[in-house]
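In practice, a research group might receive sequence data for several interacting partners and want a quick structural hypothesis before committing to experiments. The following worked case mirrors that situation: the sequences arrive first, and a predicted assembly follows.
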Amino acid sequence: MRGGGGDATVTSPVDWSDEGDEPPSGEHARRRALGDLRTLYRLADEAYRPYRCPAAAECCQLATTGREPWLWPVEWKLLLQAAGGRAPPARADGGCPFLDAAGARCSVYAERPFGCRTFFCHRARGPRREPLERMAALSRRLEALARMHDPDADAPRPLRAWHSGAVP
Ligand code: SF4
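A structural hypothesis for the assembly, expressed as tokens:
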């Protein structure tokens, strides 16, 4: 729920059961991975649809909060693509580099990582019980997706670690 409000419609769950043993490769595989990831993101959005927050992007002030999303490689690829293929410069205030210039909105909101969609701020309002089981299941599916499309994927990394490795 980081980065402001949003909306998404779920069409179908992701199913990787027909992938076989060999990891897919090439441009087609890359596009398929990003498509699968978007579908998974829509499912996370759907689970959190009943919740609302002030959409002030306070949770995107990563240095201030000391908390940040962790991304699998496929998530970082999608984020970079959404940013036009290049990592934006770091922000002087320690906020997420993907914030807009004013630091008020996520500039890549539609493609923001799983951790940004499931981050639960104390200012959020909605049903008392969070959809934790659904999120745990989606988290497992995200790991499966990440490993399927990148067999060398070791573990997710903090957003700022990805970013610092991408900017000169
Ligand atoms: S990618 Fe950055 S700016 Fe966007 S929602 Fe996540 S933490 Fe906020």
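Before designing any experiment, note the following. Confidence is low (pLDDT under 50) at residues 5-20. The longest strand covers residues 70-71.
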